[in-house]
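Lecture notes, unit on binding sites. The following record was shown on slide 14. It pairs a sequence with coenzyme A.
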Amino acid sequence: MPAPADTVRIRRAEASDLEGMLDAYEAVAAEGRFIGGELPVDRAGRRARWLESLGEESAASFVAEAEGAAEAEGTIVGTAGVTGTGPSELGMLVVPGWRGRGVGSALLTASITWARQAGSHKVTLQVWPHNTAAINLYLKHGFTQEGYLRRHWRRRNGELWDAVIMGLPFDEGVAEAPRQ
Ligand SMILES: CC(C)(COP(=O)(O)OP(=O)(O)OC[C@H]1O[C@@H](n2cnc3c(N)ncnc32)[C@H](O)[C@@H]1OP(=O)(O)O)[C@@H](O)C(=O)NCCC(=O)NCCS
């Protein structure tokens, strides 16, 4: 558990962060209840995909890097990825032990700011209905529930899990399609 004085730095991810990002992803996947990914993680495949996306203009990855904690200095304790600008799809996580300290909020703010500046009209995501912490985080940042997918994602144990679709549109003033 980090000491209260420990802080994190939010910055764009670089190729040298990939192993730390994979460790963070694996730690959260191991919990088995918050993200889509499950163990075993295909580190090689994911590393290759993430490396490719680091070079893409229409995507951004952010890391939260521990600062000031001797044993944790430089450790990646959270990640957020935004893909595309029409709309932008978000995925994020904070490793166990670093939650509830504002890291998720900081990563989400960086992601929303990037999406706006990249010209996206909206950020969209999916979240498990039981993931109260994440749903509250998104609500706090202005997202609303836009849909509900029933028995949508198959887990490795065969279970079918529901998913909540949440969105944060930026261009509320722009005209919508005509209603029937
Ligand atoms: C969801 C997650 C990213 C939140 O990150 P975090 O660093 O713990 O969140 P923060 O400390 O910035 O909290 C911001 C807000 O989130 C909500 N929140 C965070 N933890 C919460 C909890 N345990 N219960 C309820 N709400 C919670 C609150 O609204 C909080 O605002 P508040 O502090 O004013 O009450 C983190 O819990 C996590 O990584 N979970 C596992 C992976 C995951 O769920 N990823 C998202 C998949 S869709």
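Take-home: The chain has four helices and seven strands.
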